[in-house]
Structures are given as structure tokens and as C-alpha cells.
């Protein structure tokens, strides 16, 4: 008997997401992968600690498995997520500190391997750079037409930033230029700090929704013309007074009720297969509000996956 066995029943249980169990056999309904990478952050480093901080928030004493009631949600049946889905925490990729050119190889390869399975996937960042190699790998592992819903205060459409083509500020440009996703198949919301020419690029393609209602219409149209939707949430889409722990805060932004409503509109289409939550920086999250916000976004995404499972 090991020393750990001696204390069976006394030790803290392993971390889990809202008490949702892994399946006894087979693949989970949802797999969660941490991508602790922030070498391309242009303002404050620290997002590499994001995945662990989100895990800690999702299994704290104040967390539970019931869906959020911040806003009306057609996805919520009032049942705990632990009864609706199974979940496997896959762990974190070993990419911390690597140059982006090498990190993206491993991130893409991991995503391609996971995409061959039927599980929904949630990725925890990390800075927003990770969305580019993740989608690159997912499309290789599961070919098809992809749409992207991009919820961010920034457009991330720079050709290069600070002299670097791989950056959290160039993510959407790389996805479009590398033809991983067509610019017509990007639905971006907020973008309150985007440069005029960046907004013009998206406006020429299909426009930028100016209200949740217009967003819902565009997401529904997107779902009709693509095979899979990838939803990417940058925490700085929220008002900075609601979420302190982000690396690049901007004035203005959404409240949590609006954001969770937007997420629900995405999952109502039944086409969301992948999602990420990025830019949580625990080093500046002094009051833990960023971790709480990330926790609730994760719960909304898991609720959406549970809703889609019920459609099948």
C-alpha cells in the first residue's frame, strides 16, 4: 500500500470541470485541452497560466454543474451538466516557452489527432495566437468547410505585429490568408478597437453584426454553408471592470449576459464542434474575476455542447 492509499478519503480529489465525469468506456462527449502558450503576447505575459487557473475556478467550492441563469437560454434544461455529458481533461500541451514557429507544429499536430474522433473539443489558452494552429490542425484532421465565430475586442487582422507574422494580433489574418477559413465565413462580434481598414476588410466580405439579433442571423446563415463552426472567445471582449485578468484590456465591451446569449445563439445551430477560451492572465487577476468569467464562459460552452448532443 502506497502512502497515498493510506490517506484515501482524506485527500483532495483530482481537479475536474464542474464534477463532470469521464466515460467509463469509449471517448467522452467533450475533451478539454490546455494550450499554455503566451510567447506572442504583445503587452503583458502570463496567459500561459490560464488553463490551470480555469481548472481551479471550475472545481472550486462555489462551482456547480447546473447551467448558468445569467440570461435566457434555450440550451438549458435545468439539469446538471454532470448528468448530460461526459468530459475528459486531456491535459496541457508541452509548448510553453517555445518559439511560435515550433510551437504551432505541435499544437497543429495535436489538434489533427484529436479531430479524428467524434468528441467535441474545448481548448483553453494561452494567448489568442493558439486559435490559428489549432484550426489548421483540426481542418487537416477533419476536412471540410469551416466557419469561425470570433468574439474579441480586437480584429487580430494585422499582416504582422512588431515585426512578427505569428502573433496573437495576426491570428484571423493568418487563418484567412492560409485559406483555412474564407473571410466570408467569419462572423466577428464587438471588435471595438479594430482599425478602420480591418473593419472594412470584414465589412466587404459580409459585414460586421451590430446587434445580437443581427449576429444571430449571420451565425444561422454561416451554419447553413459550412460543415463545422469554431467559436473563439477572447476574454477582453468583456468589459474590463468585469474581468480584470486579461493581458490586453480595452475600454467598453460586453457584459456576461450578452456574451452567454451570443454563445447560445451559436450552439442553437447545432454546428459548433470546437471552441476556445483565450487571454486569461492570472498574473494580473488579483481579485480572481477573470477566472470567474472564464469559468462561466466554459460552463456556457459545455451547456451548448450538451444541447447539441441532445439534438443527435
Shape: globular
Q: Which CATH class applies here?
A: Alpha Beta
- In terms of per-residue confidence, which ranges show pLDDT below 50 for 5 or more consecutive residues? none
CATH topology: Arginase, Chain A
Give the full name of the CATH homologous superfamily. Ureohydrolase domain
Q: Distance N terminus to C terminus?
A: 45 Å
Characterize the biggest β-sheet: 7 strands, parallel
Number of domains: 1
Strand order of the largest sheet: 2-1-3-7-6-4-5
- H/E order of the elements? HEHHEHEHEHEHHEHEH
Helix content: 25-40%
What's the topology here?
Elements (H helix, E strand, L loop, with lengths): L2 H4 L23 E6 L14 H9 L22 H4 L2 E6 L7 H16 L4 E6 L5 H11 L4 E7 L18 H7 L8 E5 L5 H10 L6 H14 L2 E7 L21 H12 L4 E7 L10 H23 L1
Parallel strand pairs: 1-2, 1-3, 3-7, 4-5, 4-6, 6-7
Helix pairs in contact: 2-10, 4-5, 5-6, 8-9, 9-10
Notes on the structure:
This protein has helices at residues 3-6, 50-58, 81-84, 100-115, 131-141, 171-177, 196-205, 212-225, 256-267, 289-311, and strands spanning 30-35, 87-92, 120-125, 146-152, 186-190, 228-234, 272-278. The protein is α/β, with parallel strands linked by helices. The protein has a single domain, classed as 3-Layer(aba) Sandwich (Arginase, Chain A), CATH 3.40.800. It has a 7-stranded parallel β-sheet, with helices on both faces. Helix 6 links the parallel strand 4 (146-152) and strand 5. It is globular. It starts with a helix and ends with a helix. The model has no long low-confidence stretch (mean pLDDT 92).
Amino acid at each position: 500500500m502506497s502512502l497515498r492509499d493510506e490517506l484515501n478519503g482524506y485527500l483532495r480529489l483530482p481537479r475536474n470541470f464542474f464534477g463532470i465525469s469521464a466515460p467509463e468506456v469509449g471517448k467522452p462527449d467533450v475533451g478539454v485541452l490546455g494550450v499554455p502558450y503566451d510567447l506572442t503576447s504583445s503587452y503583458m505575459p502570463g496567459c500561459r497560466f490560464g488553463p490551470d487557473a480555469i481548472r481551479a475556478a471550475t472545481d472550486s467550492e462555489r462551482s456547480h454543474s447546473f447551467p448558468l441563469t445569467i440570461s435566457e437560454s434555450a440550451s438549458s434544461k435545468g439539469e446538471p451538466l454532470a448528468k448530460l455529458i461526459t468530459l475528459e481533461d486531456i491535459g496541457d500541451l508541452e509548448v510553453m516557452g517555445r518559439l511560435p514557429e515550433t510551437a504551432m507544429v505541435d499544437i497543429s499536430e495535436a489538434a489533427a489527432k484529436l479531430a479524428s474522433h467524434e468528441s467535441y473539443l474545448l481548448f483553453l489558452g494561452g494567448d489568442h495566437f493558439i486559435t490559428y494552429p489549432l484550426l489548421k490542425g483540426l481542418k487537416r484532421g477533419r476536412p471540410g468547410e469551416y466557419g469561425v465565430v470570433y468574439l474579441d475586442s480586437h480584429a487580430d487582422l494585422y499582416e504582422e505585429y512588431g515585426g512578427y507574422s505569428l502573433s496573437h494580433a495576426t491570428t484571423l489574418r493568418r487563418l484567412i490568408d492560409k485559406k483555412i477559413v474564407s473571410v466570408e465565413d467569419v462572423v466577428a462580434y464587438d471588435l471595438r478597437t479594430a482599425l478602420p481598414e480591418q473593419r472594412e476588410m470584414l465589412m466587404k466580405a459580409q459585414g460586421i453584426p451590430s446587434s445580437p439579433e443581427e449576429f444571430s442571423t449571420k451565425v444561422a446563415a454561416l451554419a447553413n454553408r459550412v460543415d463545422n463552426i469554431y467559436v473563439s472567445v477572447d476574454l477582453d471582449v468583456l468589459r474590463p471592470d468585469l474581468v480584470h485578468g486579461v493581458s490586453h484590456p480595452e475600454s467598453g465591451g460586453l457584459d456576461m449576459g450578452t456574451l452567454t446569449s451570443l454563445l447560445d445563439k451559436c450552439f442553437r445551430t447545432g454546428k459548433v464542434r470546437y471552441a476556445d477560451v483565450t487571454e486569461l492572465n492570472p498574473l494580473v487577476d488579483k481579485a480572481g474575476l477573470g477566472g470567474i468569467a472564464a469559468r462561466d464562459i466554459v460552463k456556457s460552452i459545455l451547456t451548448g455542447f450538451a444541447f447539441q448532443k441532445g439534438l443527435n
